[in-house]
Amino acid sequence: MKITPILNVQTKETKKHTEITEEIKVLCSNLLRFAEDCKRPPLAGLAANQLAKDGERIMERICFIRDAEYGSWLVAINPSIIKKSKEKTEGNKEGCLTWPKKTIVADRHNSITVSFTDLNKKQKIIDAEGFEAFVWQHEINHLDGISELVFNPKTGRLSGLSAENKIATIKSEGKKIGPNKPCLCNSGKKYKKCCGR
Q1: Catalytic residue among 60, 132, 139, 148
Q2: Which of 84, 91, 149, 182 could form a disulfide with 170 if both were Cys (CB 3.0 to 4.6 A apart)?
Q3: What is the spatial distance between Cα 183 and Cα 151, in angstroms, rounded to a whole number?
Q4: CATH number of the domain within which 16 lies
Q5: Based on the structure, what is the number of domains in the chain?
């Protein structure tokens, strides 16, 4: 079984599992091996649909979150966010396996509650805040097929306006760029008519 990342292509929405089979457990083991071997950059999280198995996109609703304190991986099957804080961090900048040498720019809830099933078929509910909450939201958006804002520092262009971030703003050199502001790429157009489409 050959596991490879799918680069520079938007992830597609996955469907929930009804059963955790031995085949799913073997797949998780292979995906975890891939995540462990990924050193540049080291991963904080990974969604199964960012990868291909023998050339075919993996459409399983599974993500992996690295425990920041211990470095171990948490396997989450059918994860969903069941509670979000009102407080958000705007224009959070994040790395992403799918978009090498680019930056995800997203508005993230500062704390969330996540429900998921583990590999032992046990239902779990955990609270996450700060960086861990941002990682969960990032990976679950991959599983939901949500397009994030992707900033290419080489060209200064943005692409992929998220449905969740329709009035998305990003912070660049200390100022907010809103939908009716001039675009960062210096095209002379409004952001929403240019890179923010």
Answers
A1: 139
A2: 91
A3: 12
A4: 3.90.45.10
A5: 1
